[in-house]
Amino acid sequence: MFEVFENYLRGWVEISDKELNIIRAASTEKNLRKWQSILHDGEVWKINCFIASGCFRLYRFGKDGTDHTLRFGVENWWISDQESYNNGTPSLNNIEALAASSVIIWTKENWNELLASIPSLRLFYEKLLARSYETSQHRIYALISGSAEEKYLEFQKTYPSVFNKVPLHMVASYLGISRETLSRIRKEFTKKK
Fold this sequence. Notes:
By secondary structure, the protein is an alpha+beta fold. The chain has a domain of 120 residues: Jelly Rolls. It has 8 helices and 8 strands. Helix 4 crosses helix 5 and helix 7 crosses helix 8. It starts with a helix and ends with a helix.
């Protein structure tokens, strides 16, 4: 499983085999069942979690009990509650596996030690955080300015392997539209094809 992460990391930065062995030694591999949670609201997120295979969603409950999907995570992506991680505060979010999944995790303490001792990993992490911030800005803009159809097309572009793997209500939740609206849009696009 670590080979998946190794290939991913080498796509971002140059890193030696020795450095990779240090990163591997600090990691833990974990397999999760479908619907298994790795974070419940109220817990503090204290790990970095790379998805080697499978699919996850990060979500939270609204005041009315409705769940709102904030993001999905698929192979070669990271899943995290960055606010809880950064501040050491109880999470408002939940993270669950939407399929049988495999992850590689590092504790916050181990990750910080790796960042301090491996400059190429620090460079990678800085690039990753910058890209994450840019993606978040793009998503916010799309949510406040895009039509339901535009949101749907953007979702298909961003998550091509997710759409048929997750329940429709989760996709609708992520897009900020009703399930009925999503069904109507899907029908319209199916007719066009």
